[in-house]
Design a protein that fits this description.
Radius of gyration: 25 Å
Distance between the termini: 39 Å
Strand content: 15-25%
Number of helices: 16
Oligomer: single chain
Structural class: alpha+beta
Helix content: 40-55%
Largest sheet: 5 strands, antiparallel
Shape: flat
Number of strands: 12
Amino acid sequence: MLEITYKSGRGAMQINLESLLPCSKADFRWLLDTVNMSDQIDDHAGTLYSYIAEQTGILKKYRDTLNAGREKKALAKVNTEIKKYLGLADMLSREYNTPEITDAEAKITLKAATVYALRTDEHNKPVAHKLSGWTFQKSGFTFEVYREVGKHPEYAILLEGTGLKIADAEKRSEIIVSITPYLLDLLNKRPEMIAAARDSFRRYMIEAGFTETEQENENRNENNDKTHNKDQEENTMKKTTNNYFAGVKTLEELRTVYKNLLKVNHPDNGGAVEIMQEINAQYDQAFKTLKAGANLDNEKERVKWSDAEDAAIREALNKIVHLRGLNIEIVGCWVWVDGETFTNKDILKEAGYQWSRARKKWHFSPYEKKFYKGSKKSFDQLRREYGSATVEKEERASIA
């Protein structure tokens, strides 16, 4: 039970969380607005967090008792319930900086993509076919799904790049839970079989007129899988041995590329010291070149951009890049951070970042004067006015 006393002194109300939650995000928005009118905002936010965390934990324990092979419908239902609580916890975290609540199993989602499957022709010979479907990742494997119209079960699940149908599902909600722990264990024990299937499938792809490059490009453009794209980006960065900042034309682009290189090559993230030294040397040279003829934006016209201020931003990034679960965005000459900041708040403070209650983000600026700290403009307006280096939300495990 949540008891709210209004700070205006106009009364109080009681909310039965057990009967209300989980609810729609619109109803939860109403609940948060009600909390904001109370005289104990932080305490009430903590109560909501504790309740959601407790219910999510109960659901996870119940899920562990279910048989993944025989109780797909029950698993799909409990995962749906967990996802509802995770959505509410995310709203709560953004509003009050409470810890995030996560669940890898429930948060897996299907991404639309072009998939390639094997079907037999009139001579009963396997032929590669291009189909519209979905992909998802689970326990280090990427799976492809397509709908078999008029058949039962309706959805076929393949191991990506092999043409191997390894599972099926009657309903879309049961697709992910069809990849059982037993099946994953089997895949982990059969690397030679998977490698042979990939080689065989590649030959069928060539015979059908599809190239490996075409398949990769289709999936990259249509799947929009962040982990897949991040792996390719990291591999490209690690293999670069010439100019790390080739094609960079502005100081904003320079900082963005440097930040991405920092995530991959920083020694705290497993990178080599000599590579990081080379990146820093190239950055210094690129910065001097761009600074001499850069097309300055509005903010930099009002404040002279200096080596010291640029070095301060670089140092601020270096101090937090190894932390798990942070989203980093550079708007103008400010660094904004949100995500899993609750457990890292002491490190952020020590690194010179400050918490903005209005923005629900941590921020760092090299300037003594703050041009938009108290601005009532939306964050999107600030992005348009000062420029933005958007950083996609990273998976915690990949950052560490």
